[in-house]
Design brief:
Blueprint (H helix, E strand, L loop, with lengths): L2 H8 L8 E3 L3 E3 L2 E8 L5 E4 L1 H7 L8 H12 L5 H13 L6 H4 L30 E4 L13 E5 L4 H12 L5 H20 L1 H11 L3 H28 L4 E9 L2 E8 L8 H28 L4 H21 L7 H10 L4 H13 L10 H34 L1
Length: 401
């Protein structure tokens, strides 16, 4: 073995501390992993073989040791040229610690390879001769757009620090001793609302005829959406996530708050990501608990009692609507995590079109992908039918009362 080859084999690469790796995700017929540089915001996808190698670049293991693990897993060894290709792909993207000084020199990579930043067909990898496919590549986080009719504006300079303070203040509620009783109360409240849905529909109709009470209910529901967004951030923080932005976004006449979790797809486990996505809807329902107690037990005049009933129905509908599994709603994020997929809706549409045309390419999808896309397609149809049925039933009730 030459001195250069021996030096390469003993090189111990390490990813920069702020580089994140995702779990395996379905992307069409392929399985991919996402890699993100949190400093620049750029990210790209690689195949399972590349991820196997990159995930082991911890500064402790040499390329020789990583290569031996790879050979045991996949039954083949990587030569020096392949190692150079992978290292240059990571180095040119600034993902290796001390990449400029420590990455061994080597021959120029061929055009279209990972070293030149080319993009591979789905399933390609630097290990097998393809390349890492880019996902996003912003140089730095974009400034919020502002305009009269549409735009956004940040509300805090350091969203992550703000969320950390909120987590210190209310994070104890995420402990099972607090969270379980609160969820039991939420379920009980929803049962009560379901049992009184007929009269609450009438209350909601009457609410829209009273401008003063309607303004009050709308204000409370807007405040609920703000808490919804902050809940995403607090739960993400609880699971080790970071919050990139907290701000206001408007598409006049609608103005909403937003909270962006910068590393949502890179949280420690699938269930942590599901908890983060679910937190908003749960917060909407928790917000309703004191109003439900007033509606059930307080001695109120008829107008106030009916307005609270309408608030409970509209607030519950708002929370449930966020769990509908269509993009960009929280329910879609939850289902995507359950399926272990990125771009679930688009991949489902592509797969179902192939099936409808009896295209042989549909058979190239692995069983897991076929199950996920078919299940999501059929589930989406069922959800649409249920929504339509609920709207028709509500309209019929209001017309006949």
């Amino acid at each position: 073995m030459s001195a250069a080859a021996d030096a390469l084999a003993e090189y111990r690469p390490a990813l920069r501390p702020r580089v994140l790796l995702s779990d395996a995700l379905l992307d069409g017929a392929a399985t991919v992993h996402l890699i993100k540089d949190t400093d620049s915001g750029s990210s790209f996808r690689v195949g399972p073989k590349e991820h196997f190698l990159i995930a082991r670049m911890d500064g402790e293991r040499s390329l020789r040791e990583i290569g031996e693990e790879y050979a045991r897993e996949y039954g083949r060894r990587l030569d020096g040229a392949r190692w150079q290709q992978i290292l240059r792909m990571l180095g040119t993207r600034g993902l290796l610690a001390g990449a400029d000084a420590r990455t061994p020199a080597g021959p120029a990579a061929p055009a279209g390879s990972a070293a030149s930043g080319g993009s591979a067909a789905p399933g390609g990898s630097a290990v097998s001769g393809g390349s890492a496919a880019p996902v996003t590549r912003p140089a730095r986080p974009a400034e919020p757009a502002r305009g009269v009719l549409r735009g956004s504006v940040r509300l805090v300079a350091d969203a992550d620090a703000t969320t950390a303070r909120l987590h210190r203040a209310v994070g104890f509620l995420l402990a099972p001793g607090w969270l379980v009783p609160l969820l039991v109360l939420v379920v009980a409240m929803e049962v009560v609302i379901a049992l009184h849905v007929g009269e609450l529909l009438v209350d909601a109709r009457e609410l829209f005829t009273n401008p003063v009470l309607l303004t009050g209910a709308a204000t409370l529901l807007w405040f609920s959406t703000a808490l919804h967004e902050l809940a995403h951030g607090v739960v993400a923080r609880h699971h080790g996530g970071t919050v990139a932005e907290i701000g206001l976004r408007w598409r006049l006449p609608v103005v909403i708050m937003y909270c962006t979790v910068g590393n949502y797809l890179y949280l420690g486990s699938r269930w942590q990501r599901i908890h983060t996505a679910l937190a908003g809807a749960v917060m909407n329902l928790l917000f309703l608990l004191p109003f439900c107690a007033l509606w059930m037990f307080a001695p109120l005049d008829t107008a106030t009692h009916d307005a609270l009933g309408a608030l409970l129905l509209l607030g519950s509908a708002q929370a449930i609507a966020m769990l509908v599994p269509f993009p960009p709603l929280d329910g879609y994020r939850i289902v995507s995590q359950l399926c272990g997929a990125t771009g679930l809706a688009a991949s489902t549409g592509t797969y179902l079109r192939l099936v409808a045309r009896r295209d042989p390419a549909a058979a190239d999808y692995p069983r897991r992908a076929r199950t996920a896309y078919l299940g999501y397609g059929l589930g989406s149809v069922l959800v649409l039918v249920l929504i339509l049925a609920a709207v028709v039933a509500a309209a019929h009730h209001l017309l006949t009362v």
